[in-house]
Automatic annotation (TrEMBL):
Pfam families the record matches: Methyltransf_28
Species annotation: Sesamum indicum
UniProt keyword terms in alphabetical order: Methyltransferase, Mitochondrion, Transferase
Keyword Transferase: yes
GO BP terms in the entry: methylation
GO molecular-function terms, A-Z: protein-arginine omega-N symmetric methyltransferase activity
Coiled coil: none
Keyword Transferase: yes
EC number: 2.1.1.320
Name under which the protein is recorded: Protein arginine methyltransferase NDUFAF7
GO cellular component entries: mitochondrion
Catalytic activity from the UniProt record: L-arginyl-[protein] + 2 S-adenosyl-L-methionine = N(omega),N(omega)'-dimethyl-L-arginyl-[protein] + 2 S-adenosyl-L-homocysteine + 2 H(+)
InterPro entries hit by this protein: NDUFAF7, NDUFAF7_sf, SAM-dependent_MTases_sf
Highest taxon of source: Eukaryota
Length: 442
């Protein structure tokens, strides 16, 4: 799981978006073997397979700027877009994350949020899931070294959990630019969603996930009309292995079932507690039958289950897309699938076209993220009366990016001469989610 940047993808599309000219048959179908796989397993392989995955062999997919952008020297939006266009034309394959484009100020805002909330009487421990090029880690550690009491910096530890070996190497190089950071920083090259890689950390700690949720595997459920039962979607090779196709099976997977339970989706196609309109719904379905497709963030559910189990006192800070424009792939919470070649962004019309050559990124439903967070912490039980007075185990807050950076960051550093500020003005489709434990254990 690696850092991804919302706006850079949109910028790249604005400059040179086009329909991908290549057929699915041009790309490897080896990420699906002889047996069908669930959609989440297909997506995981398409992104992270050691031989064919988009990120595993493409460290260049995460861009690194040679130097920080001098926003205060740019006249305004037009000058910034021209500068950004030049950056992308110099980088054939890379996307640039916000922590990279706005370095060091973006990471400094995150560090300030941590310092205001963390219990600094115990050693500060930070985990970052999918650390990308290491720019966030270096920026956070720089800020703490400069602004926190000396003992906080000297006793801190920063652990990056990175699935890509090439990115793990790059992170060490980036953070190692400051000698004193290296003694406090390490990279664990593994899948953060694999519980076997974690021990049990009983002390308070922080977990940072920047543009990670959008690249987590999702599952897909399908119904042929508005009243038919939901089916699991699997991916299989055609007999001649020339292309991939979908296969529909009855619901059996426990992760899918848990996600549907959190969403209050019944297996028979209804929504729990909404039987009053079922008669009208049946009539409507017979007159205007319409297939339904719903994407479920099972990868997020699995990751948060693992994190809450291994780090019961963790505080979480995550940033990601709240919505994606111009999505061609059908279904609620459907992803964008895009390739980048020669500086041009190409959008695919099917997620099955992504076989190691394309990024797959999803919008984050922050209401659902909060429910999953509470569910994995052991507080939320679906179908219970959520208005009861019992205490929550988590305090949560969702802020749009501009509100977060105005509160914790230094937005004056990313403002152009005419007042335009890309960090605040161009992130209307991203939000921050903060979640901290409470002392209530009931």
């Amino acid at each position: 799981m690696t850092n991804r940047f919302a706006s850079s993808k949109l910028y790249s599309s604005l400059f040179s978006s086009k329909v991908n000219p290549f057929s699915a048959a041009c790309f490897s179908t080896h990420i699906v073997g002889e047996s069908p796989v669930l959609v989440r397993d297909f997506i995981h392989a398409a992104l992270y397979d050691p031989e064919h995955g988009y990120f595993s062999q493409r460290s260049g997919s995460v861009g690194v700027l040679d130097r920080s952008i001098k926003f205060n020297q740019l006249e305004g939006r037009k000058a910034y877009m021209k500068h950004l266009d030049a950056i992308y034309k110099q980088s054939d394959t890379s996307w640039f994350t916000p922590v990279e484009l706005f370095k060091p100020w973006y990471a400094h805002g995150i560090a300030e949020a941590i310092m205001r909330t963390a219990n600094l009487s115990v050693p500060l421990k930070i985990y970052e899931i999918g650390g990308g090029s290491g720019t966030c880690a270096k920026g956070v550690m720089d800020y703490i070294k400069l602004n926190a009491p000396t003992r906080v910096y000297e006793n801190m530890s920063y652990i990056s959990v990175e699935i890509s070996s090439s990115l793990a190497k790059k992170q060490l190089e980036t953070v190692g630019a400051v000698d004193s950071h290296l003694a406090k920083f390490r990279v664990e090259c593994r899948d953060a969603a694999d519980a076997n890689g974690w021990g049990l950390e009983q002390q308070p700690c922080w977990v940072i996930m920047l543009e990670v949720l959008d690249n987590l595997p999702h599952d897909l459920i399908y119904s042929k009309d508005q009243v038919s039962s939901w089916m699991e979607v699997w991916v299989e090779n055609k007999h001649d292995r020339s292309a991939l196709s979908e296969l529909y099976k009855p619901l059996e997977d426990p992760l899918i079932a848990s996600c549907m339970e959190i969403l209050n989706l019944a297996k028979d196609g209804t929504t729990v507690g909404s039987m009053a309109g079922s008669v009208a719904k049946n009539i409507w379905a017979k007159v205007f039958p319409r297939p339904r497709r719903c994407w479920l963030p099972t990868g997020c559910l699995k990751l948060l289950q693992v994190l809450h189990g291994a780090l019961p006192k963790m505080s979480l800070i995550a940033s990601d897309f709240s919505y994606l424009p111009d999505v061609r792939i059908p279904g609620e919470r459907a992803p964008l699938v895009a390739s980048k070649k020669d500086g041009n962004s190409s959008d695919h019309s099917s997620y099955l076209d992504a076989k190691g050559d394309a990024d797959i990124f999803f919008p984050t439903d922050f209401w659902l993220l909060e429910r999953i967070d509470h569910y994995c912490s052991g507080w939320l039980k679906p179908h219970e009366d959520n208005s009861s007075k019992k205490g929550k185990k988590r305090r949560t807050l969702t802020l749009d990016t501009s509100s977060f950076m105005e509160e914790f960051g230094l937005p004056s550093k990313t403002r152009t001469k005419d007042g335009y500020n890309p960090m605040l003005d161009d992130f209307k489709n991203t939000k921050f989610y903060l979640s901290v434990p409470t002392h209530n254990i009931k």
